[in-house]
Amino acid sequence: MAMKSSLTILFENPFWIGLFERIDGDKYEVCKITFGAEPKDYEVYDFLLNNWHKLKFSPPVKTEKIEERKINPKRIQREINSQLENKGIGTKAQQALKLQHEQGKLDRRVKSREQKEAEKERQFALRQEKKKAKHRGR
Predict the structure, then answer these.
(1) Percent of the chain residues past pLDDT 70, beyond the cut
(2) 3-state secondary structure 18-67
(3) In sequence order, which residues have a C-beta less than 8 Å from that of residue 29 and are 6 or more positions away?
(4) Is there a contact between 34 and 44 (Cβ–Cβ < 8 Å)?
(5) Which of 38, 60, 119, 136, CA to CA, is 20 to 30 A from 15?
(6) For 50-55, what is the mean pLDDT?
(7) How far apart (Å, rounded) are the C-alpha atoms in residues 109 and 103?
(8) Is the CB of residue 29 less than 8 Å from the CB of residue 58?
(9) Mean pLDDT within 80-86
(10) Contacts of 66 (CB under 8 A, 6+ apart)
(11) In angstroms, rounded to a whole number, what is the distance separating the alpha carbons of residues 131 and 127?
(12) pTM for this structure?
């Protein structure tokens, strides 16, 4: 089973972003990287070398398997030209990024709720201490 990956650099107002897509069998994952100013080739390469392990990919999305077959060089050239003209994010990439965003929101909500509960318990314990201290006449 072959794993395919691609990196697309595009301008999404006001920043340059990189869309790193990887397909492993029938699983599709995507990671969005924000560069800011237009990155040079060597900067992108250096970023990937230094931060590969830190990239957070979206949860896998099911997709149909891609069959390997030899493609005519002229067709490859046409596909490259059409990809260079296409500036938008693919719908699968949008879905995967949306899923990743929703997952992050859920994680933040859970963490926030736990912090609020811990703070309530701490405040309750403080009030109980004060009541005991008053009751003892201190």
Answers:
(1) 91
(2) EEEEEEECCEEEEEEEEEECCCCHHHHHHHHHHHHHHCCCCCCEECCCCC
(3) 21, 22, 23, 57, 58, 59, 60, 61, 96
(4) no
(5) 60
(6) 86
(7) 10
(8) yes
(9) 78
(10) 4, 23
(11) 6
(12) 0.48
Which token pair is 120? 């309530």
- Amino acid type, 49: L
- d(C-alpha 25, C-alpha 3), whole Å: 7
Average pLDDT over residues 22-48: 86
pLDDT above 90 (res 22): no
Residue type, 95: Q
116: left (phi over 0), alpha (psi -120 to 50) or beta: alpha
Sheet holding 15-24, edge to edge: 3-12, 15-24, 27-36, 61-62
Contact indicator for 61, 96 with CB cutoff of 8 Å: yes
